[in-house]
Write a structure and sequence with these properties.
The structure holds 2 protein chains of 2 kinds. By secondary structure, chain A is of the alpha+beta class. Chain A is about 25% helix and about 20% strand. Chain B is α+β, with helices and mostly antiparallel strands. In chain B, strand 6 and strand 7 form a beta hairpin. Classes of the chains: A alpha+beta, B alpha+beta.
């Protein structure tokens, strides 16, 4: 699995961090998504998929 | 547009939605004030409306009382100046990015959670010390969200009676327009004075002072009107919504003892339980509107440029196409997502604050008062049917 993010689309809702805190974080000043792990281990795949589904701005893409 | 709830099932959306939803995903309807437009009742189509950049957030109000002219597109909530909730990209994003850092799960956890813990305990102590039935709306649901948003913004809580009264005046759609506008004006004047005061005290705590410092550092995007508008918006959006959600959640748990017991046995379930309560109880009772910027098609309907499109979130969140047994609150549900906070780039800025409050209040209430029960028959709990948010007006309990 490879995860990509689009910072320009991100609206900082924080859904990704709630769903997959091992894979995503947010910048302190403007809340924009930070990708911690672009190739998460299998144990994190489901969380990463949930994060992408929850993202209100469709800023996360999962390539499997 | 269906607006009347079944008194025997006050926590369910108006029953007519089901038939509308079965027929087709989107219907041409007349809104309470006589405005006409499209009403989306299914989940996928509702999500698509919120995510579509061809849909403008500059929309007229559709939930005013019967016979009242809609306010012009671009007006804010109940007479507030144009605000970022009514803007499209890129303007909306530029304003929102100034605020998002303060509303991330991490920021809420670090900066607000200790405060939430403290005030929840204090308010539960006060309930415990009371003699006889207590109204939890007055004892918990109103003061806690209000204290939290005051703390976040740096607004003196001592002024709460004023701005809470003003908010109620603004949000009660059964009030005449003049009265709602008077509420909005009060709130704007109040925040305007506070902005002036905070300019004199540049080191004072809270988001409002921080925004003033940003503005003073030469960030030209924030005018004095912006600061006042953002402050007023966050103040009223931050407390009425969470108060409504807290009241309905407690009523749901009290009328479903097995769910109360489930959270008592498994306090760790609170995260999924809150998400399910948000879906099941969806407080935004008249839906949220957008205006089509161009001709387009949704769910088989031909939408014309300028048409109002309203997503009925309470209906979409009970769509059987998106959720198994949608009319059951199931804390074991594997929930992917819901529309309680909207969707798309405008999705509720304060959602993580609301979650933190609900996830703190509900387990602690259950822990402190395991035998809590309604002091009246559930059918006698007065529901707020006139506000933009659905809620309970009072929730008398004993233990």
């Amino acid at each position: 699995m490879k995860v990509t993010i689009d910072e320009d689309k991100c609206c900082g809702a924080g859904q990704c961090v709630l769903a997959a805190p091992e894979v995503f974080d947010q910048r302190d000043d403007d809340g924009v998504v930070i990708l911690l792990d672009e190739t998460p281990a299998e144990a994190e795949h489901e969380n990463a998929r949930t994060a992408a589904a929850l993202c209100p701005a469709a800023a996360i893409e999962i390539h499997e | 547009m269906p607006t009347t709830r079944d008194t025997a099932a006050p926590l369910d959306p108006p029953p007519e939605y089901q038939a509308l939803q079965e027929e087709q995903p989107i219907h041409w309807v007349t809104f309470p004030n006589g405005t006409e437009g499209w009403l989306v009742t299914r989940f996928d189509e509702g999500s698509a409306v919120f995510a579509d950049p061809r849909m403008s957030a500059r929309r007229p109000r559709h939930d005013n009382p019967p016979g009242e002219e809609p306010e012009t597109a671009g007006d804010g909530e109940g007479g507030l100046p144009p605000l970022f909730v009514m803007m499209d990209e890129p303007d909306h994003g530029a304003y929102r990015k100034l605020l998002t850092g303060k509303f991330t799960p991490k920021a809420v956890q670090n900066r607000l959670q200790p405060y939430i813990d403290r005030i929840v305990d204090e308010h539960l102590d006060a309930v415990a010390a009371a003699d006889g039935p207590v109204d939890l709306v007055q004892a918990l649901c109103l003061p806690i969200p209000c204290l939290v948003i005051c703390e976040l913004l740096g607004v003196p809580y001592e002024d709460r009676d004023g701005f809470h009264g003003a908010t109620e005046q603004m949000m009660d759609m059964s009030n005449p327009r003049e009265q709602r506008d008077a509420g909005a004006k009060w709130l704007l004047d109040y925040i305007g004075k506070l902005v002036e005061q905070k300019r004199q005290e540049p080191d004072s705590p809270g988001l409002l002072a921080e925004l003033i410092r940003i503005a003073d550092e030469g960030n030209t995007i924030l005018t004095n009107d912006d600061l006042t508008g953002i402050g007023a918006l966050l103040l009223f959006a931050g407390h009425d919504t969470t108060a409504a959600m807290m009241g309905l959640s407690i009523m749901q748990l009290l009328t479903h003892p097995q769910q109360w017991q489930q959270l008592r046995d498994e306090p760790a379930k609170i995260g999924p339980a809150v998400e399910e309560l948000l879906r099941y109880l969806t407080i935004v009772q008249f839906g949220l509107g957008r205006v089509a910027k161009e001709d387009l098609e949704i769910g088989g309907a031909q939408i014309k440029q300028g048409d109002l499109v309203v997503v009925a979130m309470p209906a979409a969140n009970r769509d059987p196409r998106a959720f198994d047994d949608p009319d059951m609150a199931d804390f074991d549900r594997k929930l992917t997502r819901h529309l309680a906070f909207g969707y798309g780039v405008h999705q509720c800025l304060g959602q993580n604050v609301a979650r933190a409050e609900l996830k703190t209040v509900l387990p602690r209430l259950i822990e402190r008062f395991p035998d809590l029960k309604l002091a009246v028959d559930p059918s006698e709990v007065p529901m707020d049917t006139h506000g933009t948010n659905y809620g309970v007006r009072s929730l008398p309990v004993t233990w």
